[in-house]
Write a structure and sequence with these properties.
This protein is of the alpha/beta class. The chain has a domain at 2-157 and 182-214 and 261-277: Rossmann fold, CATH 3.40.50.720. Helix content is 42%, strand content 16%. It has helices spanning 11-18, 39-49, 70-91, 123-138, 158-168, 185-202, 220-233, 266-272, 279-295, and strands at residues 2-6, 25-29, 53-56, 95-100, 142-147, 150-151, 171-175, 179-180, 183-184, 208-211, 218-219, 242-246. The strands form four sheets. A six-stranded parallel β-sheet has the order 2-1-3-4-5-10, with helices on both faces. A two-stranded parallel ribbon has the order 6-9. α3 (70-91) links the parallel β3 (53-56) and β4. α3 (70-91) runs parallel beside α4 (123-138). The chain is globular. The structure holds NADP nicotinamide-adenine-dinucleotide phosphate. The site of NADP nicotinamide-adenine-dinucleotide phosphate has 28 residues, from α1, α3 and β4.
């Protein structure tokens, strides 16, 4: 099966290309080879490779910058998804798409299910929700996988930021009043490939919107402490810094962060038999990967 992966150089895109299962031929396009906000470029690439399935890992992900870069955020996260959806519909092929916990307000108290009401508070979340709507309206064979707090050995993320800061400082302050599920980019890629494999085998999937994130839920403060404990254990840091817990109000950012980002992933298990991963174990694998690449 011929698969087009967009955003191939991002965290998830990179892992998708590293983990291609047997039976798939993958065409990975970074933003320079295929700008998804350009409908003409999409047509040219579709004509050239004739994909049988598309995985969209491309997105405008600069949450704070999006507040002032509104046009570009929408061009990529909404229009771009719409163009991919229409091109996929023309060929009658599925489009697997990644979305985010930021489509919710973050005011919840129990894990969000895919059917819960959306209500983004910033431009990034609004643009991603607009992209979901474009996909659902334009492409029959659609699957939206919402995820949260993505980390991996490749690209920029909280784990790598903590390692960098932890190497320079004795103490750090991290917010403790935002909760979510850290999710490894590798586990998202594996999940998308598992979905593609089901489609390849059965010729169909239970189309719709799903949640996929790591468990158990935690605060950024708890996540940071676990990163430092594991990193020190692996010799990636000389000693873990002291991590003090602060409130979101003490760490102002241009875009409001959801206080509650916990996603209920049951629907994905019920419909496709796919389970969430324990992020503590996934973190161990990512840190081992970073250690190997540092000593290489
Ligand atoms: N990171 C998170 O914590 C998080 C949380 C929840 C959901 N998500 C979602 O997960 C998905 C993957 O995110 P990620 O963490 O892998 O993000 P990422 O590392 O920022 O990767 C996104 C990729 O998209 C590319 N891109 C940007 N504009 C593009 C365009 N116009 N055309 C084609 N490619 C373009 C970027 O390329 P350039 O770098 O060259 O611009 C980048 O390589 C996204 O849908 C994101 O919204 C992420």
């Amino acid at each position: 099966m011929r698969v087009l992966v967009t955003g191939a150089q991002g965290q998830v895109g990179h892992e998708l290309l590293q983990r291609v299962p047997d039976g798939f031929v993958v065409f990975g396009y970074g933003s320079r080879e295929l700008d998804i906000s350009n409908a003409e470029q999409i047509r040219t690439v579709f004509d050239a490779i004739k994909p049988e399935l598309v995985i969209n890992a491309a997105a405008y992900t600069a949450v704070d910058k999006a507040e002032t870069d509104v046009e570009l955020a929408y061009a990529v996260n909404s229009d771009g998804v719409g163009y991919l959806a229409s091109a996929s519909e023309n060929l009658g092929i599925p489009l697997l798409h990644i979305s985010t916990d930021y489509v919710f307000s973050g005011n919840g108290e129990k894990a969000y299910t895919p059917d819960d009401a959306t209500n983004p508070t910033g431009v990034y979340g609004l643009s991603k929700l607009a992209g979901e709507k474009q996909l659902l309206e334009r492409c029959t064979r659609h699957l939206v996988l919402r995820t949260s707090w993505v980390f991996g050995a490749h690209g920029n993320n909280f784990v790598k930021t903590m390692l960098r800061l932890g190497g320079d400082r004795d103490t750090l302050s991290v917010v403790s009043d935002q909760r979510g599920g850290p999710t490894s980019a590798g586990s998202i890629a594996d999940t998308l490939w598992a979905l593609a494999s089901i489609f390849q085998r059965d010729g169909r999937l239970a189309w719709g919107v799903y949640h996929y994130s790591g468990f158990p839920d935690c605060s950024w403060h708890e996540f940071a402490k676990e990163i430092f404990t594991q990193a020190a254990g692996l010799g990636l840091l000389e000693k873990p810094p002291y991590v003090s817990a602060i409130m979101t109000a003490q760490y102002p950012t241009p875009a409001k962060r959801p206080a509650w980002s916990v996603l209920d992933c049951q629907k994905l298990e019920d419909a496709h038999g796919l389970l969430s991963k324990n992020w503590v174990q996934e973190l161990q694998m990512v840190l081992l990967q970073l250690k190997t690449s540092r000593s290489a």
